Request: fold
Amino acid sequence: METSPAELLLPSLKLMITGMGIVFLFLALLVWIIGLTARLVQSVNPQPNQPRRTGLAVEPDEAELVAVIAAALQRQRRP
Amino acid sequence: METSPAELLLPSLKLMITGMGIVFLFLALLVWIIGLTARLVQSVNPQPNQPRRTGLAVEPDEAELVAVIAAALQRQRRP
Amino acid sequence: METSPAELLLPSLKLMITGMGIVFLFLALLVWIIGLTARLVQSVNPQPNQPRRTGLAVEPDEAELVAVIAAALQRQRRP
Amino acid sequence: MDDLIQLWASTGLSNFQSGQAVMMIVGFGLLYLAIKKEFEPLLLLPIGFGAVLSNIPVAGIAEEGGLLSYLYLGIKSGIFPLLIFMGVGAMTDFGPMLANPKTLLLGAAAQFGIFGTLFGAIALNLLPGINFTFRDAAAIAIIGGADGPTSIYVASKLAPELLGAIAVAAYSYMALVPLIQPPIMRALTTEDERLIEMAQLRHVSRLEKILFPGILLILTAMLLPSAAPLIGMFCLGNLIRECGVVERLSKTAQNELINVVTIFLGLSVGSKLSADQFLRPETLGILALGAVAFSFGTASGVLMAKLMNVISPLNKINPLIGAAGVSAVPMSARVANKVGQESNPHNFLLMHAMGPNVAGVIGSAVAAGVLLALVQ
Amino acid sequence: MDDLIQLWASTGLSNFQSGQAVMMIVGFGLLYLAIKKEFEPLLLLPIGFGAVLSNIPVAGIAEEGGLLSYLYLGIKSGIFPLLIFMGVGAMTDFGPMLANPKTLLLGAAAQFGIFGTLFGAIALNLLPGINFTFRDAAAIAIIGGADGPTSIYVASKLAPELLGAIAVAAYSYMALVPLIQPPIMRALTTEDERLIEMAQLRHVSRLEKILFPGILLILTAMLLPSAAPLIGMFCLGNLIRECGVVERLSKTAQNELINVVTIFLGLSVGSKLSADQFLRPETLGILALGAVAFSFGTASGVLMAKLMNVISPLNKINPLIGAAGVSAVPMSARVANKVGQESNPHNFLLMHAMGPNVAGVIGSAVAAGVLLALVQ
Amino acid sequence: MDDLIQLWASTGLSNFQSGQAVMMIVGFGLLYLAIKKEFEPLLLLPIGFGAVLSNIPVAGIAEEGGLLSYLYLGIKSGIFPLLIFMGVGAMTDFGPMLANPKTLLLGAAAQFGIFGTLFGAIALNLLPGINFTFRDAAAIAIIGGADGPTSIYVASKLAPELLGAIAVAAYSYMALVPLIQPPIMRALTTEDERLIEMAQLRHVSRLEKILFPGILLILTAMLLPSAAPLIGMFCLGNLIRECGVVERLSKTAQNELINVVTIFLGLSVGSKLSADQFLRPETLGILALGAVAFSFGTASGVLMAKLMNVISPLNKINPLIGAAGVSAVPMSARVANKVGQESNPHNFLLMHAMGPNVAGVIGSAVAAGVLLALVQ
Ligand code: NA
Ligand code: NA
Ligand code: NA
Reply:
């Protein structure tokens, strides 16, 4: 059962719409649940007792960072 | 088809000669290509801009050492 | 060949006695051999020339930390 | 004499096929990109080397019984990409996303790169010489997710014979993000929009961070179980990171484990770069579609941000961070930051862009789940 | 419309079986215990997560071809528990035990927890709804060894279908040692006994420590070869640690290798937590028997210490350290120390309790060998 | 009573075969050499331990289904030796060799240790009780390469039943280099020759170092593809080291990965030390031939250096560094340095000897390729 190229266009259009719909639905639901959780958590622990970095996770590890800097300095120091 | 021990002597002699020949040929070719590459590289970058150790690689890595110490100190510093 | 629950009670009692017997025998034998070894070792090396911690190996991390630093220093000290 | 003939017959020179020679050059080209241009070197270096190794004649390193054939089992079974995903999870901080959850919608919009490309791949079939099945098209489209392990995982399930080209395209375009994205971002935004400053992110408590992987996993289990292996391992890595009680597992997942698997994964992907699978018109199609996918994803992320500003004009977001929705962590977030600073050097968007950036990872895993569920 | 139906049919919601939902809750419960209560988090976190993953409907992560089915091969072949045991050996200092070898007898006595429980499990068969075979009973009894990898190794050989429940019980009770043991210890000892101070341990030479794993292995080879895989790998780890010439192997065995295997082992164990194998009356029996096993082991360790004091009244040992004979390293040694300090804050029993503690590890491996040899 | 008989029948004592006892002693002997004499402890310790474990009666640790039978698959497939070779590549600095490429010829000459031994092994067949096939002889000869992973790789392909003896001989003689080489070096050189000082090595640019693994791989692919797996993985490791863009992979390849594989490889090799394969006259032949191989290699390296001095008398090389051509990195380079300093304590040959030393690694991999290509 060969399908001509054109015959696949419609199903792929349908898949595009369904797919984007699901992705949006899923992430929108997640937005809602995250908000809910945040409110729940804050009502339980009103004061954030343990200030932690909210920063980015680009830097994997502080120890690693130190190691990397040290290694870099070391390399630079080499004659 | 049993082969007597003596019958294998000649082929092993031949293999010895062929083998040593190939090893020499291969490494001699490598000597030549390395020389060629070195000249080529030096004609492109006439000044070695980044002096690095030409030393031996026996001791694994100095950078690693520094990294290890730094990581250790880092860990100790944590409360 | 179904065995009723009660029929298994006797074999399990036997296994309990045999098992505890073997465990005791094995570890008692080990007590004896350890003592023998200790005497043998002390007759060979009468003075403990290298006092090491007999302490606990509980915290893996701290020991590791010390080991890491020591190894690093050790490596650095090498000519 | 006999020996010499046997020897000559055993050399590579007497057995080289032109396709193998070309593929070795392709492999060295990837090594060049990885080392000299620093194109995602962690992956492209082993991939390029794997391509070279597997195209050495006679040696049969990628054939049955060769080293790379054994390593490839780690891809076929899904183990390697899933372990990488666990490691990525252990390196990801969801803080910026949890602080501003609506950035998740930017990560959703950018997945149009995937589905638009799927349509494009099918449309390419109208060209002569190109013949993608539905499964092929879905596997190619996932490049638009800008996520390496997801691409490899999906391609290994839907179109293993295209795996090499797809992985190469995915990682190459991820490396090209700083070239592909800025023009699109500038074209779709006004100077005023690029100057928008965003409010500082709120503090996210440790408890929220611990709960998030569980919530995400439950949602996936209920709605899209086909995405559960990917998202599950990602959540496991993130939970190991955030829970704070298994530091030694976290360290290993982020370092040694992911490094070992990266080497093996790269070599295995490279073993799929054989002449008969790569030197085909379809590969050109894949490369072209990959560029389209990234452009579509970038554009829809930016446009979504603009739409959100129209809908809720009070709490405006800088549309540049929409481009970070394609994932490509952390490259595309850095690009958003850099383009923003061209307009105002004191506008730090990096942290804000990390939200859509990690949302893009989730978004593309969800899209992967959709493809795996609906494409047979 | 068709697509939507197909999609709905592919969701977890439309496929959830009640058993799966319950098991996911069990998995999250284990995660809670691991993270919030810090119950052996290194193992219970991956076990709990594995339980959640393997009960996601449709995804089939624990079924043939799924990630966890591949990882489980590491348990089935015995590789994972044996590698963990090697790592534990590399982390163990036998010094305190070698300094005072008669504490080995405390480690022997505590194994009554194993054999008494075996009898108990068979006796439970008299209850309706519970039906343990001899193999099942032996696998359950090993929980009394208070040693995770030993329990998993024995259970995978004798009763793989009970593996999940057994591993969960073993690690949970190990975490509960600080709750289970003290009342028993207090009930069986007088204040005077708890106040006994012990002589400082003699110095143990490096040579003795190097010789010990060899001696233990020879004894095992001659008397109880069925325990040789477990004790052998344990001795290998310890020799790597003590010999002083392969520091890099020692470091890797204690860190990266054991960490990687711990993640894989935990996930694999979790994959055995399926509804049909876990949600049965037998599981309640296993949990009840586990508590009994720990109590029996604790009691017999303490009573053995008291008996030894009667036999050799000159060189008395504090009977509290008998409780450390159950192994559960180093938790039960800490418990012995803590209960001792309730009576006299200046009495440091920790080092003395490490002797029976590591002896307990050997004792339970020996007991495992007995079960593997005699139970068919 | 029945139980006791069953128990006795399950002990090692009632099942010990004399061969197993002897092999356990052999295993402990290797452990002694590894720990006390520091003979290549990283390998000989796990090998010795593996020998002990696999000769424990009843336990069947090296038999089908036992731990070591699974680990052995890593040798059978070639994965373990190739990963070790990758790690060795990542630890190797080709700088000294690239600075003075003619030292490669010393590394070539020293491979006469391999081919001379092959002839010797065949000649040994003239003795009664010894019966080596051509494949056996080739596998034994590779000991002369003084390279552990290469020996194991070749032996696993050509003569797996001799693997244990060959690996033990290879690593033992590598450890004995400081005893075997100096007398030969002194006998073949004059005091004047030993006093030769060599010019300081030129600086080698980073680019040259990056290009070298690629060049070596291309040459191998064209001329000797049968050596491509070995040399390829070696080059991969070296490229990872030198390229400078994948530090984290380099660190893992040099540390955790090679450490884990070393433990597994050693145990697997040890599992081949069974009585019926080791306690044969052939083993004595292998041990004798191994010593011959090392001596031949050392002598031809030194003689080649002298020949080169005759041919180009202007830029003389110290013939002592010819002995380093056997590889055995870095032991034989250190030996060359030490013997040189006996004549002149201010003559530092170490760096100069590293050239032939790493050339020897390449040379023996090339020789391995020749054997794999020509011996069927
Ligand atoms: Na994405
Ligand atoms: Na125990
Ligand atoms: Na060599």
Summary: The mean pLDDT of chain E is 93. Chain E touches chain C through 64 residues (CB under 8 Å).
